[in-house]
Amino acid sequence: xxxxxxxxxxxxxxxxxxxxxxxxxxxxxxxxxxxxxxxxxxxxxxxxxxxxxxxxxxxxxxxxxxxxxxxxxxxxxxxxxxxxxxxxxxxxxxxxxxxxxxxxxxxxxxxxxxxxxxxxxxxxxxxxxxxxxxxxxxxxxxxxxxxxxxxxxxxxxxxxxxxxxxxxxxxxxxxxxxxxxxxxxxxxxxxxx
Length: 193
What we know:
Layout: H1 3-11, H2 15-37, H3 40-57, H4 67-85, H5 93-98, H6 104-114, H7 122-141, H8 144-155, H9 160-167, H10 171-192
């Protein structure tokens, strides 16, 4: 059953349909929350709060965008709210240890020229792991207006249009934010050398 059909049924009070949406989208929502908040515990809280918000707002969902895009917006806004309410500290240690090998969107970004091609040898794999660690730490140091669009576009693989919709900005504004984020990321990576 499609997300749109599940959302309509869930809005009508079908708890089983809502449960299917939760099972289908929680892993992606958790990754976004983890990359924005930097801690596994806070990411879990964010996802739980985001699902509560989504449940309450389902009746107002107008089906003008994909359910997944709407859920990205809910979890992004919830995560940003959590970050605003806490002290300004960033730790991605939990995020780094929680990364999975199956995270192909992240891998494709990291392999797109940001990292050297060191596949094959054990030494190369170690160098690559250190490079991935450096990139994720540099992303964690970016300001939220730079980090969030970079996470959604480059790590989660959303289209420009989807990210613009999630962040409620125009595509040209998003492209500008992403450009600034990439420049800042490269500057941080150069500092690490």
